């Protein structure tokens, strides 16, 4: 096998121009073939490579843009979450205040209601006592009226039995005289 430097240095070894043949020197032909293939690939493949490269760059920019948008949305969501938490704390504070005020208001209303009930009970007790006293007075008055009526009936019965005609006329005359004297006083 020949050395690579031998094929490049020895120029007299080239075959004549009129013949066609295969070069059996693998290293020299590989370099030529590689340079031709690379040249063709670069010539025809630069558009494909450029479009792939631009697509990758464009995709990278879209991904970066999407990441930035996601970060902005996340920051907005975090900000809204903090605002919502602040509102929640405020509402919870107000609810606690209303709850405390409500409980104290309920206690106050309960005490007012209890006091009102006691006042009403006292008034009802007073009305009951007054009613009992009135009914007792009325019952006493009715008993007195009956006793008086019975006493008058008994007295009339006794008087009728004891009075004779003359005594009866004198009593009537005396009563008429008393009524006449009372009438003169009033005039």
Automatic annotation (TrEMBL):
F-type ATPases have 2 components, F(1) - the catalytic core - and F(0) - the membrane proton channel. F(1) has five subunits: alpha(3), beta(3), gamma(1), delta(1), epsilon(1). F(0) has four main subunits: a(1), b(1), b'(1) and c(10-14). The alpha and beta chains form an alternating ring which encloses part of the gamma chain. F(1) is attached to F(0) by a central stalk formed by the gamma and epsilon chains, while a peripheral stalk is formed by the delta, b and b' chains. One of its GO terms (molecular function) is proton-transporting ATP synthase activity, rotational mechanism. It comes from Caragana halodendron. Component of the F(0) channel, it forms part of the peripheral stalk, linking F(1) to F(0). The gene is atpF. Belongs to the ATPase B chain family. It comes from the Eukaryota. This is ATP synthase subunit b, chloroplastic. Keywords: ATP synthesis, CF(0), Chloroplast, Coiled coil, Hydrogen ion transport, Ion transport, Membrane, Plastid, Thylakoid, Transmembrane, Transmembrane helix, Transport. Pfam families: ATP-synt_B. Its main location: membrane. It is found in: Membrane; Plastid, Chloroplast thylakoid membrane. The chain crosses the membrane at residues 31-54.
